[in-house]
Structures are given as C-alpha cells and as structure tokens.
Amino acid sequence: MKLTKLFSIVIAVFIIMIGSIAGAQISKPGEVIKDQGTNRVNNRIEQGIDAGFNKIEEGVGGFFKKNKENGGAEEEADEESPSGSESGYDESDNDDTEAVPAPQKQKLESATQYDFVPGDKILYFEDFSQDAVGDFPALWTSNGGGEVKTVNIAPGKWFHLNGEDAVYCYSRTTGFPDNFIIEFDIIPDEEYGHGITFTLYEEDPEEPREINDDLYPGKSGLHIKVKKDGWETKGYTNNPEGDWISGQASKSPVGTEEVNHVIIWIQKRRVRIYHQGTKTLDVPTNIYAHTKFNRFLFSGWDSNSWPLISNLKITTAAPDTRSKLITEGRLTTYGITFDVSKADIKPESYGTLNDIATVLKENPGVNVKIVGHTDSDGDDALNLDLSKRRTESVKNELVSKFGLDASRMQTEGAGESKPVAPNDSPANKAMNRRVEFIKL
Predict the structure, then answer these.
(1) Which among 61, 79, 97 is the end of a domain?
(2) What is the structure's pLDDT at 101?
(3) Are residues 48 and 158 in the same domain?
(4) Which of 213, 370, 399, 423 could make a disulfide contact with 391, Cβ separation 3.0–4.6 Å?
(5) Shared domain check, 306 and 159
(6) If we measure between CA atoms, which residue out of 27, 30, 5 comes closest to residue 17?
C-alpha cells in the first residue's frame, strides 16, 4: 500500500464523519470515541468510525511492516516517535487535561518511644581516670586478671577484663533505690562471642563475700548478658521455690571493635535495656519482688574473649521535670551528654530533650535560660568556651528537632566556675558536668 493511498483513506473517513454529524468528537487514532450518544444514529456512526479506524490501523501496521521488511530507513525512523506511541502522534499536542499519577502504595512505618530519661542524682560513676595505665583498678576486685588501658578509637581510660572464667566485683556496697539507671560503655574485640554478664544482686548478710564467684550470687539478683547476637536477662532467687524469670532480644546487638553505649533502666520489677539510641528489650516482671539490690559485678563464664569497659554510671531515674522546671524554677539534668571536649549531643540525650520540650510546649508562657557546666579538667578558658557551645547545641536541637521558638531560650556557659561538688573524684567530676534549665 502506498503512503498517499493510506492517507487518502484517512481523509475520506473524516469527511464522512463530519458530513454525518456536526460536532461529533473523536479520539486520537486507535482510541475509543469520546462522549458516546445514546441514540441509534450516533451508535451507527460510531460503529462506522470504529470500522474505519480499524482499517486505518491495519493499513498503517501493514505499511510499516512492509517497509521494515524492505529495509526502508526513513520508515523505520518513523516507527517509534519521540513520545513512544506507535502512531507517532504526540498525545501532549492537543490534550488539555493533566495526567493523574497512579496512587503509590504506602510503605509500612513504625515508631517506638525512646523513653529513657536519667535522674538528677548520681549514685556512682567510674571512668578509671584515678588509676594508672597497666594497674588493676583500685576500687574493684577479682579472682582473675585485668588492667587499665587506653585505646585508639576512644578517649579516656578503659578497664580490660581479661581473666578466664573470672568475676570482677565492685568492692563496696551501693544503696539502690527502686527506680535507677545504669549506663556503661563497652568495646568488644573481634573475637567477642558469648559475651559477658552484668549482675545486680542482693548480698546475703549472713554470708557477705567481697569476691562472689557463685553462678547466682547473693540472695537474689538479675543477670544481664551482653552478647554479640543479642541480649538475655534472668531474674533469679536462691529460695528453694525460686525459678528463673527470663527475657531475651536480638534487636540492636553490640558491635565489635567499636564503642557501644548500654543503658539499663530498673523500675522495681521492670527491666528496660537501651543500646545505640534504641530500646532493645522491655520485660515488665524480670525481677523478684523481694529483691533489694546492693552489689554488682561483671562475669564471663564460657567467654572466649573479654571486652573493655568504662564510663560506668548509676543514677536515680525519671525526675519530675514538670515540677522542677515549672514549680521550683530550676532543672538540673545529667541526661544531655556530649562527646569528650566537643559540643556534639549524643543520641541517648533524646529522651531528656523530648521531656523538656514537652513541658515547654505545654507551658508556652515559660522562657528558660540554658546553662552549661564542666568539671575542672583542662584549661579554664577552653572549658568556658566549650560550655557555651554546648548550650547553643542544646538550644539548636530544641528548635530544629522539637519545634520550640528560639526566642524563648537564652544560653550561658559557666565552664568550671560553679561546681556542685569538689573535683576530686570521677563521681564528683561527673556531678559537675551538667546542663541546667532556669525559668526566667
């Protein structure tokens, strides 16, 4: 079929259509006629037009097929138009309607509440800064080996627990309240497998032991196993009728050869564990009700390697933020933490910042001053500058992440000028490193 003959057919069909009915609307070649009438005449016209277009399509298809077989270069170029339609007709030329995008399938999303908020009182802090590198820490005891070291991936000093089947006990008793939080940093080596166990327990007053290497020490307690592939908890009692109260999770296990920040929140019988900004485990009844913790230790039975630990901190838990800030006019928090000598806020500070932001949003008329404090280590001027930069970071975080108005917050750096304790021990220095919110 010649090209001129093909287009003659097209023109003829259009003339018949226009002569039969004025104003009839047709679609582009190959499409169904728009606005179909309901009367018989229009139906017949539409049938005739459909038949005509079928002939056109057959002719066009045969024309392209014939010329493609003959190797016609020009016809092959016309086979696919720039718009990608078979007819070469650009659908955007005369179409005033906008294309409606296909609905996208919504992806499943979930959220979890990161509700960790440390208390306003430090019960214990240990970073081994008072111990010499190579020595066994002065306030700890063990039936195995261990020494204080430095590492190339993190600042400060670290206690390397490296005794086979050994226990490492803090040598003093500690009075734990019903609600408290334990934090520590741990660096497992590449051989770390079965992990280590952190144990809280109630010492038996009739059999006090400075080094308690029993599998289940004291009258009752809680084992928390920090493994490469997850977490295990085991509440126990040495009463004859006692049994284990277990919990486990594989979410967010510790990573080897890196610093892992572990948080354990004890609230009466409830145990929550947080790691790297995520709540990894929450067991509502993991501890025997009669347990009164007063000792803690690390152990590593069946462990093929030992990690390094540091920055072990125990605080009271869940301060009444609303009361202290709104009623008392001042809130001191140890829950906003920073990298050493930097103003970068650590991820575990989220819960505290969220708590403060919530109170300020609920009390829009309250403005605050954010005051940063450091300990006395280092140069005075540098500490002052660091405290100023840290308060600016806190303000910026409350504005950018929690939507607070920047005009409601002032910042001030106090450096080391206003200590609340002598800078003579790791625990007292930790008390001096704090952020305060003062109601204006």
Answers:
(1) 79
(2) 58
(3) no
(4) 370
(5) yes
(6) 27
Q: Token digits for 195?
A: 């992990």
| Domain identity same for 309 and 340 | no
- In this structure, the number of other CB atoms found within 10 A of the CB of residue 40 comes to 8
Domain boundaries, position 73 = 3-79
Secondary structure of residue 24 in the 3-state scheme: coil
Q: Which residue has the tokens 């309901």?
A: 38
Q: Which residues partner with 369 through β-bridges? A: 410, 438
Same domain, 306 and 347: no
**Partners of 260 in beta bridges:** 186
Residues 310 and 327 in one domain: no
Domain assignment present for 105: no
Give the C-alpha separation, 210 to 361, whole Å: 50
CB 413 within 8 A of CB 385: yes
Token pair 């939507």 in the structure block, residue? 403
CATH number (domain holding residue 179): 2.60.120.560
Picking from 267, 294, 318, the residue at the C-terminal end of a domain is 318
CATH, residue 367: 3.30.1330.60
Smallest CA-to-CA distance from 316 within 173, 115, 118, 114 is with 118
414 SS3 class: strand
Q: What is the pLDDT along the chain (440 residues), one digit of tens a residue?
A: 444 444 455 455 444 444 444 443 434 333 333 344 444 434 444 444 444 444 444 443 443 334 444 444 443 334 333 333 333 334 444 444 455 555 554 443 434 456 677 777 889 999 999 999 999 999 999 998 899 999 999 999 999 998 778 999 999 998 899 999 999 999 998 888 778 999 999 999 999 999 999 999 999 999 999 988 899 999 999 877 678 899 999 888 999 999 999 999 999 999 999 998 788 999 999 999 999 999 999 998 656 678 999 999 999 886 677 778 888 999 999 989 998 889 999 888 888 899 899 999 999 999 999 999 999 999 999 999 999 999 999 999 999 999 999 999 999 999 999 999 999 999 999 999 999 999 99
Please tell me whether residues 170 and 58 are part of one structural domain: no
Q: Are 148 and 128 in contact (CB under 8 A)?
A: yes
Q: How many distinct structural domains can be found in the chain?
A: 3
Please state whether beta strands 368-373 and 409-415 pair in parallel, antiparallel, or not at all (unpaired): parallel
Instruction: Tell whether 100 is covered by a domain.
Output: no
**Taking Cα atoms as reference points, which of 351, 112, 127, 152 lies closest to residue 252?**
112
Residues 325 and 247 in one domain: no
